[in-house]
């Protein structure tokens, strides 16, 4: 006779109520290198979307999170060594090289970390694969991660899928992310929507502000 | 003074020569449940693409791999317990439930595993997150993984990105994968092409047959 | 000004109350190969301790666990392939080779697994390093692991230390383990006692029977 | 018919020749907190052994490693946050609290890291469980780790076992480690000798100096 799932393994919806002490806000790659319009590739749609929507929305989410006791966590692309020998094979193949401690590796001023917030360096697409992020957030007691930052169809997408696989309730703040073009941004939101709950910044700010 | 990368960390191209003993062919979710046209969702483009292209191409790649001494590895969606309590949170939220040892969990007859090939059960999108796949292939001595199977924009995409992050040379056999629609298949190939080398089955069969 | 720990990060004691749905009983390497007195190394103290104490105590713990709804989990030394190419480097260096599906790999009859209990093959000292054990038990919802089996100063010791590092409340059932000599058994209990709570089978049976 | 191991999986000995670019020297917990004779527990045998043997031997090994191009890596006990909420459950249960950036967390002056050497903070016994150490050293290309530091029967023992399980050739520099008493040091060397190759500093300095 076939066995049935346990009652606690049956869910009606991904939209679980937020609990402050168990929720984290992850801000991905909001760093100088990414916003360096002068020296990096031309991508006008990205800079426009980032400056007018994604960055202000990340700031609103961070502000609401701090007030509510939701953990704010940053990750940035940054070598752990100066010569980058520790970089992932993929970063070596892709010729990504962001020196340790450089201006390029710093979080942009608009989103500056507050005292005792974690900034985790990585040389990979998903920080789950290359850092002890899962270890840190489990130790803190988090089971729900709100994802924001850059790029929607690369690190954001990948982090959401990995977090879903590893047992976290993943939430995408859909207007607090951006990528090279609006079309790619929209396509990505659709591509990974089965792995997470998708919400606007406005809805999340309200949920965070009201959470226990 | 800024340090430079080590010479061994500089690559001109992702197209490294294949070495038989270091290469694996991964066949993802080519199982009865996925090909169950009668009981699963209607998706005519998928069944057409799978039956006329992806499955025959996987068979050709498996055949060439066995002749050349390239490791053939399968993964299937399958609970490790009968009541599925071991499933990932994501599989519970998504109501995916494929009983251990069931017909649904079996690799399809056309691609039946040969003696001593590994079949790894998973309840996740990327087997890197939920199984000891990385451990097994490192012990065997593999550093290059050719990815085939289903669905191009879900498990295939995610596995390629995770493998890239974790230091493997990832190769997508672009016509040995499929997803619900042709449009989604093409979009996915574009979305993850920065994480891997993309090749046709014909090109890979030739490369595998000629490798040391 | 120096920051202080959060209130929830301060513990008075390791002796937390057991909760049935969050506790697992792990039985390590209680398999035919280990108990094969005829073909393996002579170690009379081990077989005596195993037969008269450790095995009966594991049976009592398993019985109490099943009645209370505590998960019973087995791990055994067993290759995942027939030629053992998947074994850890350490098993290769140590010339450990226990064929997949062999009599040697089977749990001993006295402790036969019940329906739907997990038996996890490994080729390592600590199953945390080589299997998806942590993933499975997190999905099930466990945070406390009672460790029993063989050998006290190898797999048992190592598993307790790894579990402690990875955020589990580890408990050693001190008279449900054994190793080659009584002296080594006692030394090991002392060596790892800082990583776990140490209890007799009698005390644990009582705690399990009374837990919610 | 039973399958046999592959030729490349058969080893005669653990004593493989050292290759400079594939070898790392790991220095564990050689930090001010551990050597703080005034404020920490009285353990005269430890301070004596550390000052007269282990520390000078680590210095000799580090010096030989730098000359030969062997990677020198440090790990220290150190919170990643100021309030230590990221610490492992075990460090919380044990009331270990070493503030981020504090004097206590610093490597002792005698063994000061050189430019671009990695110092990895941890809040666990084995850094394999809690940091991205394995990821970093695989990216660098290391497969052999020489272990030194404190305490022989805790972090050193545990790190050697984890490294062995995870596919590294582990080497213990037996006179470049120490623990609370000489008796515990000797017992630990015996307890984990099956997981590694054990060598004196003198023998290792010679091997390192002669390696390619």
Task: Count up the domains of chain A.
Answer: 1
CATH fold-level label of chain A:
Rossmann fold
Shape of chain A: globular
CATH superfamily annotation of chain A: Isochorismatase-like
Helices and strands of chain A, in order, run as EHEHEHHEHEHEH
Q: How would a textbook summarize the main sheet of chain A? A: 6 strands, parallel
Strand order, largest beta sheet of chain A: 3-2-1-4-5-6
CATH architecture type of chain A = 3-Layer(aba) Sandwich
Mean pLDDT of chain A: 96
User: How much β-strand is present in the residues of chain A?
Assistant: 15-25%
Classify the oligomer: homotetramer
For the secondary structure, the number of strands of chain A is 6
Distance between the termini of chain A: 43 Å
CATH class of chain A: Alpha Beta
Low-confidence stretches of chain A: none
Rg over CA atoms of chain A: 17 Å
- Going by helix content, strand content and strand pairing, the class of chain A is alpha/beta
Number of helices of chain A: 7
Largest interface: A-B, 46 and 46 residues
The residue fraction in helices of chain A comes out at 25-40%
Walk me through this protein's architecture:
- The structure is a homotetramer of 212-residue chains.
- Chain A is built from seven helices and six strands, in the order E-H-E-H-E-H-H-E-H-E-H-E-H.
- By secondary structure, chain A is an alpha/beta fold.
- The first copy, chain A, has a single domain (20-209), classed as Rossmann fold, CATH 3.40.50.
- The longest helix of chain A is centred in the first third of the chain and has 25 residues, at 44-68.
- At the A-B interface, helix 2, helix 3, helix 5 and helix 6 of A face helix 2, helix 3, helix 5 and helix 6 of B.
- Chains A, B, C, D: This is Isochorismatase.
- Chains A, B, C, D: One of its GO terms (molecular function) is hydrolase activity.
